[in-house]
Amino acid sequence: MAQGNQNIMGKSEARFMENQKKTVERNKATAEYLSEAKARTIKTARLRELRLAKEEADRAAAALNPVAPKKKRASRALKQAVSASTQAKS
User: Fold this and answer.
1) pLDDT by residue (tens digit) across 8-33?
2) Helices (H) and strands (E) in the chain, counts
3) Could you say which DSSP state residue 90 is in?
4) pLDDT of 27-79, one tens digit each?
5) Is pTM, for the whole model, over 0.90?
6) Backbone phi, then psi, for 51, in 5-degree steps?
7) Contacts of 82 (CB under 8 A, 6+ apart)
8) b/e per residue, 17-32, with b = 16+ CB within 10 A?
9) In whole angstroms, how far apart are CA 11 and each of 6, 18, 72, 75, 86?
10) Higher per-residue pLDDT: 2 or 21
11) Has residue 90 got a pLDDT over 60?
């Protein structure tokens, strides 16, 4: 009877140790996942701040240096009229 109890106790302790080991590994994996998620969140926030600062600087630079309006192309009729007048003068 004592031998049977020792055998049962040994198996029980082995199962308990295996469960403890799995729990430690699970907690370690969870902690690693959470730390990666936190690092990703911090990096994303930093990059967003940099992007917003750059966009603001670009807007400020654009306000200080307004873009010159593009020259309109002369219409074909106007070109022909100018060409006709220069030919008439010669």
Assistant:
1) 999 999 999 999 999 999 999 999 99
2) 2, 0
3) -
4) 999 999 999 999 999 999 999 999 999 999 999 988 888 767 777 776 777 77
5) no
6) -65, -45
7) 74
8) eeeeeeeeeeeeeeee
9) 9, 11, 91, 96, 111
10) 21
11) no
Structure tokens given for 4: 């049977």
CA neighbours closer than 13 Å in the CB half-sphere of residue 86: 6
Q: Which single residue is written with the structure tokens 């593009």?
A: 70
The radius of gyration of the chain from alpha carbons, rounded to an integer in Å, stands at 40
Question: What does the block give as tokens for 15?
Answer: 């199962």
The first and second tokens of residue 54, run together, are 């750059």
